[in-house]
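Threonylcarbamoyl-AMP synthase structure dump, as promised
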Amino acid sequence: MPSEFRLRLAAARLRRGGIIAYPTEGVFGLGCNPLDRESVLRLLALKQRPTAKGLVLIAAEFTQLEPYLDIPTELMRNRVLATWPGPVTWIIPAADWVPAWLTGEHAGLAVRVTAHPVAAALCLAFGRPIVSTSANPSGLPPARTALSVRKYFRDGSVMIVPGQLGELRGPTAMYDASTGVRLR
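structure tokens r here:
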């Protein structure tokens, strides 16, 4: 687990529009402030990922994500909350104010309340959700070590937060909250 000082540095970097890489349940993630359009666009450019695909937000607790979502039924809410905190990402209808740079061409937003101690601590230090997309250029394998992150992003634009990955061997499972159907 990184020190409180490291966590505060990472949160400060997010507040200033920076991009960080950090361990998650199965791979290193790239993150930024989801409400800072320029940061999100820089992150997408680093990954060479089109904005149409949308992004995942992670949080330490559901209350951090709730303003971003429009959960229409108690059944959907219960389905989602039964898996959190944990390594399950859900596509949930987005609140009408959520920017297109997060949802892409979709009506839903991909979200997760993480149980990973470093990822959760980053969200708590930042005070809100952060973007979480695999730390790799599109088409290449997701980074599973800090060294891999450094090799992918050699220009120094990404601050690496140290820590161990969780027990998954790849990205988290993703489900559609409306249907319960697994998407990955």
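The longest helix spans residues 4-15.
lmk if u need the other ones
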